[in-house]
Design brief:
With 280 residues, this protein is an alpha/beta fold. The protein has two domains: 9-229, TIM Barrel (Alpha-Beta Barrel), CATH 3.20.20.60; 234-278, no CATH class. It has helices at residues 18-25, 45-53, 76-80, 99-109, 146-152, 166-182, 197-210, 223-229, 234-249, 265-278; strands at 9-14, 31-35, 63-67, 88-93, 114-117, 138-142, 185-188, 214-217, 255-258, 261-264. The protein has an eight-stranded parallel barrel, surrounded by four helices. The protein has a two-stranded antiparallel sheet with strand order 9-10. Strand 7, helix 7 (197-210) and strand 8 (214-217) form a beta-alpha-beta unit. The radius of gyration is 19 Å and the shape is globular.
Length: 280
């Protein structure tokens, strides 16, 4: 596993497009997900793999991950051959249904970190607690509404007020809780209206407030907004440092007054986590 802070922005890029790959490599994304699954037509998957094999050495910039095809897909085994290339930090596994899928994958890939997309099938919603205690190298968990709505035969993912319908809010919340329980990074799903900056800003800030520490992106223009939303502000850092310093000065205390507000041990845990994320 990497010692670097978890990525704030995870930018998808179709692995069969040299132009889009070049643009992604020059972006401010913390991590790129070279996509071999949904954004690449079946006839282009072999070409996409060849493009990834030809990538030169990584010199700084975004970290490199690859979304492979699902384990039941015929291209899956060919995708795994890419991971002899050291520059690829990890695997993004789509349509994961339980911890068993991660263990099965790790039998082939060893200690390569896995970012599992965990809500794309109906069955997956019943198994979000199974990832806790996994022996597989689980680094992150994210959720997806597009494949889930298709699998459910939904006419729309949205309620009358324009917000996500209950089923998809449930999937999102279960992903967050499942990831935290498993000790993995909780990553919010994509915001598909990539020209709506204000909508993305609102959704990303809400996700950060709820406990997600990163978000998937589908366009480089989304990256700065996502990075800003998941970067602790100076005020938040100062507040967290004050909490940590207060407990360091009174190590046996259970509750302390910090700046006129009562804080306890859970606040200390949150403060330490925030300061760790702020070290970029």
């Amino acid at each position: 596993m990497s010692d670097l802070p978890p990525p704030r922005s995870w930018l998808f890029v179709p692995a069969d497009s040299e132009k889009k790959i070049d643009k992604a490599l020059g972006s401010e994304a913390d991590a790129i997900i070279f996509d071999l699954e949904d954004s690449v037509a079946p006839a282009a998957k072999a070409f996409a793999r060849d493009l990834l094999k030809e990538l030169g050495p990584r010199h700084g910039g975004p970290r490199w991950w690859v979304r492979i095809n699902p384990m039941f897909a015929p291209e899956h085994r060919e995708d795994l051959k890419l991971f002899s290339k050291a520059e690829f930090e990890g695997i993004v596994l789509p349509k994961a249904e339980s911890e068993d899928d991660l263990v099965h994958l790790a039998h082939s890939t060893g200690s390569i970190p896995i970012h599992a997309i965990v809500t794309e099938t109906p069955a997956s919603l019943f198994n979000l607690g199974s990832y806790k205690g996994t022996q597989a190298p689980l680094a992150a968990m994210s959720w997806g509404a597009e494949d889930l709505s298709s699998a459910l035969g939904a006419r729309s993912k949205y309620a009358a007020d324009g917000k996500l319908a209950f089923t998809y809010q449930l999937a999102r919340s279960l992903c967050l809780a499942g990831a935290v329980a498993a000790g993995a990074q909780p990553v919010d799903g994509v915001y598909t209206d990539f020209r709506n900056d204000e909508g993305l800003k609102e959704e990303a800030r809400a996700a950060a407030s709820e406990g997600f520490t990163g978000k998937l992106a589908i366009h480089p223009a989304q990256v700065p907004i996502i990075n800003a939303a998941f970067t602790p502000s100076d005020t938040e850092v100062a507040r967290a440092k004050a909490i940590v310093d207060a407990f360091a000065a009174h190590p046996d205390a259970g509750v302390l007054d910090v700046g006129g507000r009562m804080v306890d041990r859970p606040h200390l845990t949150q403060a330490k986590a925030l300061l760790a994320r702020a070290k970029r």
